[in-house]
Amino acid sequence: MNKAMINNIKSTFKSKFSTEPLMVFSPGRINIIGEHTDYNDGFVFPAAIDKGIVAAIQKSDAEISTAFAVDMNEGIEFFPDSIQPLHTEHWGNYVIGVVSEIQKKGIKIENFDVVFGGDIPGGAGLSSSAALENSIVVGLNETFNLGLSREEMIYISQKAEHNFAGVNCGIMDQYASMFGIENHALLLDCRSIEAKPFKIDFHDYELILINTNVKHSLSDSAYNDRRSVCESISKMLNIKALRDATESDLLTIKDQVSDEDYQKVLYVVQENQRAVDAGAAMLADDLEKLGELIFASHEGLSKQYKVSCDELDFLVDCAKESDQVIGARMMGGGFGGCTINLVSKTGSKLFQEAVTKAYKNKFNNDCSIYAVSLSNGTGLI
Ligand code: GAF
Prior knowledge:
Enzyme class: transferase
Protein name: Galactokinase
Family: Belongs to the GHMP kinase family. GalK subfamily.
EC number: 2.7.1.6
Bound molecules: 2-deoxy-2-fluoro-alpha-D-galactopyranose
Domain GHMP kinase N-terminal: 93-180
């Protein structure tokens, strides 16, 4: 955990309010496989990481509540019982959205102050928004003794994202950030919200993230569009969610939908199976198989689900051409952010140098490379 960041958030809070705050750390996440399956009630394979959001929070006697984002050097003021969404891109939505969703459950939130900051690179697809939402809901739960369970809290965070940020996300990010376990990834069934933890030991291999450092616009509307396609085809099939469909079920509606939409739902059904197969491969310690599934996941995300972009495809192609990488794919919602790569430890440096150079030549832009440690979920520090 980033001690300097924790100290900075705490001292900023104290200099503003002269009281001792409650401190919360809430991590970002990676996802090994199972992309765009969460809102189809399917399987995902995420893990919390050691980068995240730190929030300092305390009750206030003032007439108004405040939130201050240290990294943006910007604050907002609000009344907890009369909250309206800010403009779509505003970070404040993740704070006031959580407050509003708690109040909608009939729980009154008194005035409070929060100061927060983080070390998750912005736009990298590592779920800084879920981390922020979870830090606020856990902070408020403790501060006001609300008695919310951790499961109730992730759904509050998710609703904040739907109703305030306008993204109809699934539950993967909030779950992974809340329930992460050090050195483990979680094979999560998004219908039952039950997860099987896998201790991660990739032997001679390691996971690295490569950030394209791009975030193409329209990603939120494209995300919501994909979700609508999945839901309307589930209705046609008379099932609750695509998790309940097989490839042969999809053939029954093939003639009634566009080929584009057919490919999208086919991707979801296949990706869900890949996530399950990845769990089996991990149990069998079969890293080659895991790597193949990861490459296949990218192929589907790019060609069928169409949520990749040139930069992500280029990074995955570089990985495919390298002898050092056994699996790579885009990660998260898409249209930018990071790829996740399973790379041999001995060849990792060589691969990183080659990909950095190739990316610069191709896009005249730098990519960034991170090694990740898997961490525990949201909690007091
Ligand atoms: C984003 C969403 F927030 C998640 O719920 C998930 O759907 C993911 O995209 C794609 O797998 O991170």
